[in-house]
Structure formats: C-alpha cells, structure tokens
Specification:
alpha/beta; Rossmann fold
C-alpha cells in the first residue's frame, strides 16, 4: 500500500519527500494537471520548492482516484478547500484509511475544525493532526525539525510517528486533537499581528509583548474548548507561535509585515495563500460564542476586513485598561 499526499504546494512536496525517504511508494496529488505534468517532467516542484529534487519513488498525479491505493493520506491542501477535496476523495478512498491533516485553520462557512470535516465527509476513516514549528524548506533540506502528531489513540499516533519520523524529523505524540488544531489555527492570526507591528516599526519589545499576550489569547481560547494546557505550551502551540511570529519565511508574518508598511490588503499577500487571513474572522466568532476575549486577534480580523486602520488598531490595544497578567 502507498501513501497519498494531497496538495502539491511547498508543504505537500516536502512531506512527500519525507515519506519517500523511508522507501514508501508515494503519490503526490495536485489539482492542476499542467503543474503535475511539469513536476513529473522536471522531477522538481520549481514553483513552490525550487532546488529540491523529487524522490524517485514519488509519482505526481492529477487524478484523485489514486487515493484508492493509499492506506495513509497526508492532506496538505488549503483549509478552505479541504472539504471539497475530502468529498472528492471519499468516492475512491479505502475504508479505514488514516487521514492526517497537515493544514492549519478553521473552515469559515461551518466554523468547524478540519478533524470534524474528515468525520463528516469521510465516515470510517481515522483523523489525525500533524502540526508544529516547521517550514517546508527546512524539512525538505533535512534540517532538524520537531512537530506534534495527534490522534484519537496513542497507538495511532505512534504508528504515524514510526511511518514518518526520521532522525531529523521528530514527531511527538498526543491524543489532544482539538488542542493541536487550536494552536495551528490561532498562531497564524497572531503572526499577522506580529508582522504588522514589525512593519509599522514598533520595535522588538512590542513584538515580544505581542507574542506573549497573543499566547495568552490562544491559551484562553484553548481552555474554553477543553484543550490540554501542556498541548498549548508544546510544539503545536507555543512552539509554532514563536516560529511563525518571528520569521519572514512565514506567509502570515510576511503578509502582516506588508500591511504594517502600508501596502494594500489586496496585494500584501503577493499572491500567496495566507491562512490566517481566512481564519481571523471565524476565530473571533468562535471566541465570542464561548465568551473568550481575544483583543489582538480581533484587531487583526478588523484590519483584514477593512473596518479598522492599523494606527487605530495600535491605539486601541495600547489604550486598553490596565489589568492583571492572567
């Protein structure tokens, strides 16, 4: 049996090479046939991961029906396209397949996390989450990386770790699926805030304060949804937040950086997918429903929506009442 990677972007390609390194037969699915043909011909995904050769045991495919050959699926498609891809895959996917979610976000239309989408669209499959501080190019280059894999049971998480783990790609196990999902979704929104602060020239002190207070928001939201504190403090929570909020390799941070420098919302993404821009509004809606205050995330959502200028957002956060650090 094979491994199927859904999504031929940078992360999907890096994951395909990772899986192939252990001798697995790997299918790399992309929704754009011309892109798949180019990757097949050049044995490299130059549009997303230039300079990284594709392993010989990876077969790029444009037909999702190849998922019938897979016992393990790595889904690295954008969050807002996830349900459509899962629904299409359900026509051919084998019963009992392990579906590992490698995207980070919340579906806007339903306000559902992606593990819920898997349960709804792929009955009989087993959802797991792979998340943590990891840039695709670092993984592709074999640089040391550690992430979390969360599943319904420790045995399933251990199986994933054994299948994908290498000396340079460490997987720590968890059964707190929701906690891992919350960390991955919220940190993208907070990374935009940190990018804005950097772009606006607010200084390193302000950036550090945003990470700390942003984590407080993430933790409050996580507790309200029964996430475990150790999950939020771990790789998929605090670890991923620190990475994403401090590097221009992060598309979310770079998007915020462009906004902070005065670029228009329509062009600040440079044509790249910015998951946090889609997640911000639904994150705030969910926080409101469970009675959690998330002022930094709310300012990000309003800036993205065009309801608040960046100078106004900065002023609003600075003028909040003095309070205990809880």
């Amino acid at each position: 049996m094979a491994i199927m990677v859904l999504g031929a972007g940078a992360w999907g390609t890096a994951l395909a090479n990772l899986a192939a390194a252990k001798g697995e037969r790997v299918f790399l699915w992309g929704r754009d046939p011309p892109q798949v043909q180019t990757i097949t011909r050049e044995r490299e995904n130059r549009g997303y991961l230039p300079g990284v050769p594709l392993a010989t045991n990876i077969e790029p495919v444009a037909e999702i029906g190849w998922i019938s050959e897979a016992e393990l699926v790595l889904a690295a498609v954008p969050t807002q396209a996830f349900r459509d891809v899962a629904r299409a895959a359900s026509q051919s996917a084998r019963a009992g397949v392990l579906w590992i979610i490698c995207a980070k976000g919340i579906e806007r239309t339903s306000k559902h996390f992606l593990s819920d989408v898997v349960v709804e669209e792929l009955p009989g499959t087993f959802p797991a989450i792979l998340s943590g501080p990891s840039f695709a190019m670092d993984v592709a280059r074999g640089l040391p990386t550690a992430v979390t894999v969360a599943a319904t049971t420790d045995g399933v998480a251990q199986h994933v770790a054994q299948r994908l783990g290498t000396p340079n790609f460490r997987l720590y196990r968890s059964t707190d699926i929701r906690g891992v999902e919350i960390g991955g979704a919220a940190k993208n929104v907070l990374a935009i805030a940190c990018g804005i602060a950097t772009g606006a020239g607010l200084g390193a002190s302000a950036g550090a304060a945003l990470i700390a207070r942003g984590f407080a928001e993430l933790a409050r939201f996580g507790r309200a949804l029964d996430a475990r504190p150790e999950t939020l403090m771990g790789l998929s929570g605090l670890g991923d937040l620190v990475l994403t909020c401090s590097s221009e390799q992060s598309r979310n941070f770079s998007y915020g950086l462009a906004l902070g420098r005065g670029e228009r919302r329509e062009t600040a993404s440079r044509g790249r997918l910015v998951e946090g821009a889609f997640t911000a509004s639904v994150l705030i809606e969910l926080a409101r429903e469970v009675g959690v205050e998330m002022p930094i995330s709310q300012c990000v959502a309003r800036v993205i929506a065009g309801d608040l200028q960046i100078t106004e957002a900065i002023e609003a956060l600075l003028q909040r009442p003095q309070k205990s650090e809880l």
